[in-house]
Structure formats: structure tokens, C-alpha cells
TrEMBL record:
Coiled coil: none annotated. This is MoaD/ThiS family protein. The lineage of its organism: Bacteria, Pseudomonadati, Pseudomonadota, Betaproteobacteria, Burkholderiales. Residues 3-78 form the Ubiquitin Mut7-C domain. InterPro entries: Beta-grasp_dom_sf, Mopterin_synth/thiamin_S_b, Ub_Mut7C. It comes from Noviherbaspirillum cavernae. CDD domains: Ubl_MoaD_like (cd17040).
């Protein structure tokens, strides 16, 4: 199945060099979890702060069990500071 992974801010450095903007389309197995994708792209857990699937927030405790579905868009942001 196909999903889209979007990484924002400093996390875009973890996408493949041939990425388009901040997103990449992936073929993944039906049982792929958010945590699997974080590991696949070697995202430091301390930088995986805000996680949305199809625009819906996913709690940190749910990221190990939440499986992806065909057409899903997974968006991940690092912690953001500012004033």
C-alpha cells in the first residue's frame, strides 16, 4: 500500500536526497506502524514531537500500535521553540 510521509523543519534532513519538498511517497506493508517508520528513517525519538495522520493528532503512547492504511498521510514535526 502507499502512504505519504511528510517531515517538517529540521526533520527534512532525514528524507532521501531525491525527496520533493518535505514529502516522500512510500510503499509499506499493511502492518506498518508509525514507530516502524520513525525507525526506518532513523528519526531521533526526542525530535518526534507532533505526529498527525490525515490531520489527526496521534498521542505518543499510540504511535507503537497505530498502523498505516492505504492513502494515509503521516506528518511529523520536531519540538518548536519561539516567542
Amino acid at each position: 500500500m502507499r502512504i505519504t510521509l511528510k517531515l517538517f523543519a529540521t526533520l527534512t534532513d532525514y528524507l532521501p536526497a531525491e525527496r520533493r519538498h518535505n514529502a516522500v511517497t512510500l510503499d509499506v506493508a499493511c502492518d506498518t506502524t508509525i514507530a516502524d517508520l520513525v525507525a526506518r528513517f532513523q528519526l531521533p525519538p526526542r525530535l518526534v514531537h507532533l505526529v498527525l495522520v490525515n490531520g489527526v493528532y496521534v498521542e505518543p503512547a499510540d504511535r507503537f500500535a497505530r498502523t498505516m492504511h492505504d492513502g494515509d498521510v503521516l506528518a511529523i514535526w520536531p519540538p518548536v521553540a519561539g516567542g
